[in-house]
Write a structure and sequence with these properties.
Elements (H helix, E strand, L loop, with lengths): L4 E6 L6 H17 L3 E6 L6 H10 L14 H4 L13 H11 L4 E4 L5 E5 L4 H8 L12 H8 L2 E4 L13 E3 L12 E5 L2 H9 L4 E5 L3 H8 L6 E4 L4 H7 L6 H4 L13 H11 L3 E4 L5 E5 L1 H5 L4 E6 L14 E8 L13 E4 L5 H11 L6 H15 L9 H14 L3 H10 L9 H7 L1 E6 L2 E10 L7 H18 L3 E8 L4 E8 L2 H7 L9 E4 L4 H17 L1
Parallel strand pairs: 1-2, 1-12, 6-7, 7-8, 8-9, 12-13, 13-14, 16-17
Antiparallel strand pairs: 3-4, 5-9, 10-11, 15-16, 17-18, 18-19
Helix pairs in contact: 1-2, 1-13, 1-14, 2-14, 13-14, 14-15, 17-18
């Protein structure tokens, strides 16, 4: 079955409810309209408390968190993986390598944990794959290995079975002129004299070949205690294939380079190039889950991407530079994102990106499910502050009751519940609050951040809480390398906000605050929207200060 092309749908960094919902519900709509591709919504960071509550209430799973869409090892590696147990032979490994045209075979235990690997491209393995090594085989295998591999017939053996071969070698007997060390195994023709000579010189066993079974039995009778085995083929055939009996455990690389499935592909490439063969991919318990080849790693397809709820390059997913942006769905100003290929842009001046997705359902002649309608309504309420923000449009006001009916909720009650879930002003960490909903912007050469915190009661912003938020805001500004950072704490019930500013140029901060105490900020009645009110104010004040 052909693998379907995957398209990621991503909101902005530090995702709010609108970004999460727009990505999730748009992906569900796309799946209904296009069965030939796979649409995967992602979050670029941890969901907010409000977002988690809304998805749980709607009975729909949150999209996974994935801040980077660059290819990973797990996404790139092939499907079928071949492996061997440590008891397998070199011959087994060679058969797999040749049959499947692969560069290495992993060796795993009974639980699938990686023990090592065997490859003809390893310096320590190359000799055994290409040369006759009978002079060294005694150090790599036992007599039991040879007996089992070649189905040797025991003509004279201990009652307890074949003894384990002590460190030694396999020796070929050429007539009566051959060397034998204690513990060696002699291989030769079926000659009683050869059997007696081998036993007298201390050989532990002899393997008779180039003979009939009757001839071999006659020769075996010359042995008193030495083990005698019979090989039905020729001595040359036995010699040329003897290395195939070597257990892979004795020649494998027991400390191979491994990769993890979550590892980025570009980070894995240097290891692949240095290894000269495929690399095993293991999980946290060192269990083999796949293999990555150089061929697979060299030519991954370009990512396909749909962006929602942002038009700023500084706010988008990591890895966007190598992706094809197919579509942008947003309700903010057109920012600095550039596309390599022409992209479909659905940018509408409405209260939320969820509003646009709801419109796309209607335009496609489809209705959202109950859960999808609840998500869309919740995101619209979150972004328009229950339809009180100046960003609210007639489209939002028309769609909200329709979505509420479809979701089976009362608009006002549900709306207050949504807004209440976003209020962490009193107890939330100051550092977490200023980063919760912050976006990066630029004006000329100035890079700055603008954050927003929503509350149902601005009285919770005590002097002590204000001081903590200013400290956290300044720390965020320094970490981000911004020249300035602004924060509005918005009372969604009274429709007013307090503006706090930190700036490397104190005179600029004082100008923006219009003379208000920087330690208390400035109260702006009617200000609830970062997009339509705060940003225009900041841009205007910055331009005035510059001039």
């Amino acid at each position: 079955m052909r693998k379907r092309q995957q398209v990621f749908i991503a909101g902005h960094q530090r995702p709010d409810t609108d970004a999460a919902v727009a990505a999730a519900v748009l992906a569900r709509l796309k799946r209904r309209l296009d069965r030939n591709r796979s649409y995967q919504p992602i979050l670029l960071g941890e969901a907010t408390r409000q977002t988690k509550w809304l998805f749980k209430r709607a009975g729909i799973a949150l999209p996974p968190v994935r801040p980077d869409i660059r290819w990973t090892v797990g996404e790139t590696m092939g499907g079928e993986t071949y492996s061997l147990p440590p008891s397998a032979r070199l011959g087994d490994a060679m058969a797999i390598l040749q049959m499947h045209r692969i560069s290495m075979v992993p060796v795993v235990d009974k639980d699938g944990r990686l023990l090592g690997l065997v490859s003809p491209r390893l310096p320590q393995n190359e000799y055994f794959f290409n040369f006759n090594v009978e002079d060294y085989l005694g150090h790599l295998l036992t007599l039991d290995d040879v007996v089992a591999s070649f189905a040797l017939k025991a003509l004279k053996a201990n009652r307890t079975g074949p003894a384990t071969l002590m460190p030694g070698s396999f020796r070929v007997a050429n007539g009566g002129n051959f060397e034998v060390e204690p513990g060696d195994v002699v291989m030769g023709g079926a000659s009683p004299r050869l059997v007696r000579d081998a036993e007298r010189r201390g050989a532990q066993a002899i393997i008779l070949a180039d003979a009939t079974l009757a001839e071999a039995k006659l020769a075996a009778a010359a042995s008193r205690q030495m083990l005698v085995y019979y090989y039905s083929g020729s001595l040359l055939a036995l010699l040329s294939s003897l290395s195939l009996a070597i257990p892979v455990r004795t020649i494998m690389d027991a400390e191979p380079q491994t990769l993890r499935p979550e590892q980025r592909l570009d980070q894995a490439m240097p290891f692949l190039q240095a290894a000269r063969h495929a690399l095993p991919v293991v999980d946290a318990q060192n269990r083999l889950i796949g293999v990555l080849t150089q061929h697979e790693a060299l030519a991954p397809a370009q990512r396909r991407l749909i962006l929602v709820d942002h038009f700023e390059r500084t706010q988008t997913v990591r890895g966007v530079e190598g992706a094809i942006i197919e579509e942008i769905v947003d309700h903010h100003r057109v920012g600095g994102i550039e596309t390599v290929m022409p992209a479909r842009v659905d940018c509408r001046p409405v209260g939320s990106s969820a509003t646009i997705v709801a419109c796309q359902f209607a335009e496609a002649g489809l209705e959202p499910t109950r859960g999808e309608a609840m998500l869309l309504l919740g995101a619209m309420i979150a972004d328009t502050l229950l339809l009180t923000s100046p960003t609210t449009t007639a489209v939002d006001r028309k769609l909200a009751p329709q979505l509420a009916k479809r979701a089976g909720v009362k608009l006002a009650t549900f709306g207050r519940d949504v807004l209440r879930e976003n209020d962490e002003l009193a107890e939330g960490s100051a550092d977490a609050l200023v980063e919760k909903d912050v976006k990066a912007f630029s004006r000329g050469e100035l890079q700055f951040g603008a954050a927003q915190i929503e509350t149902v009661d601005l009285k919770l912003l005590t002097p002590e809480r204000t001081a903590a938020l200013l400290t956290a805001l300044e720390a965020l500004q320094m970490r981000s390398g911004w020249g300035m950072a602004a924060l509005i704490v918005t009372d969604v019930i009274r429709s007013e906000s307090r503006l706090l500013v930190t700036d490397v140029t104190p005179a600029r901060a004082a100008w923006i605050l219009a003379g208000a105490d920087p330690n208390q900020g400035r109260l702006h009645e009617g200000m609830v929207s970062r997009k339509k009110q705060l940003l225009p104010l900041l841009f205007e004040r910055l331009d005035q200060f510059q001039s």
